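ok so I'm stuck.
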Amino acid sequence: MKKKIIRNTVAIVSAAVILTFLAVTFLMYTHSVKLLKFGTENEAETLKAAIDAEGMDFMENETFSQNGRRITIVDRDGEVLYDSAADAGSMGNHKERPEISQALYQSTGASLRDSDTLDKKVYYYAVTLKDGNILRVSSSMDSIYQLMFSMAPFMLLLVAAIIGISIAVIYIETERMVRPINEINLDKPMDEPIYEEFIPLLTRMDHQNERIRIQLEELKQAEGIRREFSANVSHELKTPLMAISGYAEIISHNMVKKEDIPEFAGRIYKEATRMTTLIEDIIKLSRLDEQSEIMPFEEVDLNRVTKEVADSLQTVARRRKISMTIDGDVPEIQGVRQVIYEMIYNLCDNALKYNRDGGSVHILLEPSPREGYSVRWSIRDTGIGVPEEEKERIFERFYRVDKSHSRETGGTGLGLAIVKHGANLHHALVTVDSKLGEGTCIMVEFSNNLPGLTNNRRPVSVADGRKIFGNLRA
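replied:
not stuck anymore, here's the structure
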C-alpha cells in the first residue's frame, strides 16, 4: 500500500511539475513574441514619423540606432530603395511580400515568416510613408530562442529539484500517514480511531472481533461438551459391554450350572438392550444436532400425540400400579411431529421411571398464560423429585440425579437432553418445579413464533423429513 501511494503520488506530482514547466515555457514564449511585435511596431511608427518629417536623409544620420532591427524602404513598385542589412541593389522585388502587399492597400501590414535573405524566423511590420513608399521594420526571433535555450538548463534543474523535494516530502508524509494504520490494535480497533474515514472499517472489524470471540467461546464450550460426551459415551458403553463379556466368558468356560444359564442369558439380554437403547438415544441426539436446519414442520395435534405416548406406556404404568391421566385440549401447533413425540415420550417415561409404585402421573394441556407462547404442555408426577441445586443440570447429557436408580430402571441419561434439543428446535420454553421426595412438574410452552415459517427454512415434505430423521421411537 505504501509503495503504491508513493508511486502514484510521485507520478502525479512529476506530471504536474512537467506540465507546469511546459505551460510556463509556452506563456514566456508567447509573451516574448508579443513584446517583440510591440517593440517592432513602435519603432516602425517612430521611424515613419521621423522620415515623414526629414525625408530619406534621416536614414543617413550617424547617431541613429537601429537597436538590432532590420530596416527596409520599398517603393510602391516593390523596388528596394534602402536596406540596413543588405545591398539594396542586389535585392529582388518585394511587392509580393505579405506585409508589403498589405501596407500598399491598408497602410500597415505584418507577417511572421522565414526570411529569404537572413534565412531565419523574422517578424515584419510595414507601414506606408507620407511619400507613398513603404517602410518595413523586422525583428529576428533568434533573441527569443536564445533566451529560451539559455533558461532551459536552469528550468530543467528547477524541475528536477522540485520533483526530488516532492519525492522526499511524499515519502516522509506517507510514512507518517501509514504508521498509525500499521499500529492499529487489531484486537481493539475502536480504542483509538486514527482517521475519521477509517471509523466504518474499524467498527466492522470490532464487530467481527466480537463475533470471532463469541464463536471461539462457543467452540471451546462445544469442544468441552464433545470431550465430556465422548468420555461419558465410552464409560456408559463400557459398563454393559464388560457385563456382557463377563457373563459370556463364564458361560463359555462351563462355570455356570445348567439351571442358571437362563438367568445369565437374561442378564446379557438386559445389558444388550440397555446398550442398544443408549446407542439409539445417541443417534437421536446426533440427528437433532445435524438435521435441525431442515426439519419438516407441519401441523401437529398435541392432544393425539400425548394420547399415543400414554397408550404405549400403559403396560409399564399398570405393572407398577401408577395411574396416568390426561386433561385439557389445545389447538394444533407447528412443529416436527417425530421430535415432539420423542419429547413427550421421554418426559412421560421419566415420570414413570422415577415415580414410586402406586403413584400418579398427570398430564395437562392448556393455553399458555405467558406472552409470546400459545400452548402449555405439563406433566406432574409423585416421584423422587429433584434437589433445588440440581434443577439446572438435569438437561445435561448423561447427568442423573439418582445414578443407582437410573441403572436399575435402564435410564441412559439422555432423555432430558433430547427434550432440551427438541425445545430449542421449536423455540419452546421448558421450566421445572420439583421438591425432593415429593415429585416433579415439568412444563413445555410452545412459542407463537413458528420457526418452520419464519426462519427461512428450506421447504421439506413430511415424507422426506421422515427419511432424513427416521423413526425416533421404534
